[in-house]
């Protein structure tokens, strides 16, 4: 069964540095999402992406964050000037075109640790 | 404030037994409710998606119910297996596109032999 793949599985970065989290969505999917989950807390929506542009974003997704689909397969989340509180698990998800009831398929996440 | 509350926080059951997990939500507007299963160290996997007009939806041994009047949902697991050990997350969507998802904290289920 097709899967959403995320790399790296674990990223350790010094505070203030920039990180890029990578995702390869399922090939025929057209809707893409990023979520984060701080340890012990709920999953939180960050941003959705469709037709090469952001379709919706949460309050968390401020100027520090950006997303890009640089080619036909990758979907990236860039975090600039990382802060300690950016430490979390970041999940990418994708959804097929068509009925909204198509489920979102999640990757296994990237654990980001800011030191 | 939009909130999704789940109970119990954790649950331990014996293999083969049934269990029911609860979800209460105070979300407006409401579009649909989703249940996800999240194994440790893995991403969430969709189990069911229901709109306000659907009362019950099944996926194998998983049966979700929805009462849109009382804003309650439940996930019933029949004949539990060791592989059912996971976190079960209730998620309410404010829109059809699923771009405004409110997640619960999840119920951690442990199935023992």
Describe this structure in words.
The complex is a heterodimer of chains A (115) and B (113). Chain A is mostly beta strands and 115 residues long. In chain A, 0% of the residues lie in helices and 52% in strands. Chain A is built from no helices and eleven strands. Chain A has strands at residues 5-7, 10-13, 19-24, 29-37, 43-50, 53-57, 65-68, 75-79, 88-96, 105-106, 110-114. In chain A, the strands form two sheets. In chain A, strands 2, 4, 5, 6, 9, 10 and 11 form a seven-stranded mixed beta sheet that branches. Chain A has a four-stranded antiparallel beta sheet with strand order 1-3-8-7, with no helix packed on it. In chain A, a hairpin with a 6-residue loop joins β7 (65-68) and β8. Chain A is globular, with a radius of gyration of 13 Å. Chain B is an all-beta fold and 113 residues long. Chain B is built from no helices and eleven strands. Chain B has strands at residues 3-7, 10-14, 19-26, 32-38, 45-51, 56-59, 62-67, 72-77, 86-93, 101-103, 107-112. In chain B, the strands form two sheets. In chain B, strands 2, 4, 5, 9, 10 and 11 form a six-stranded mixed beta sheet that branches. The N and C termini of chain B lie far apart (41 Å). Chain A binds chain B through residues 4, 31, 33, 41-45, 48, 55-56, 91, 93, 95, 100-101, 103-109, and chain B through 32, 34, 41-46, 49, 51, 89, 91, 96-101, 103-106.
Short description:
Chain A is mainly β and 115 residues long. Chain A is 0% helix and 52% strand.
């Amino acid at each position: 069964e097709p899967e959403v793949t995320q790399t790296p599985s674990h990223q350790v970065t010094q505070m203030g540095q920039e990180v890029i989290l990578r995702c390869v969505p399922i090939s025929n999917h057209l809707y893409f999402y990023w979520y984060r989950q701080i340890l012990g807390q709920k999953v939180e929506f960050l941003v959705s992406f469709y037709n090469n542009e952001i379709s919706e974003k949460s309050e968390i997704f401020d100027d520090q964050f950006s997303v890009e689909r640089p080619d036909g397969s990758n979907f990236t989340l860039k975090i600039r000037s990382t802060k300690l509180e950016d430490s979390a698990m970041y999940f990418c998800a994708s959804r097929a075109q068509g009925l909204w009831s198509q489920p979102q398929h999640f990757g296994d996440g990237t654990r980001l640790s800011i030191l | 404030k939009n909130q999704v509350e789940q109970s119990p926080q954790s649950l331990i059951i014996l293999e083969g037994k049934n269990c029911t997990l609860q979800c209460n939500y105070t979300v407006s507007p409401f579009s649909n409710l989703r249940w996800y299963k999240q194994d440790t160290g893995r991403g969430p996997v969709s189990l069911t998606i229901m709109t306000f007009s659907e009362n019950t939806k099944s996926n194998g041994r998983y049966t979700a119910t929805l009462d849109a009047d009382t804003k309650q949902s439940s996930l019933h697991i029949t004949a539990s297996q060791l592989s059912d050990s996971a976190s079960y997350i209730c998620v309410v969507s404010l829109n059809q596109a699923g771009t405004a998802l409110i997640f619960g904290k999840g119920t951690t289920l442990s199935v023992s032999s």
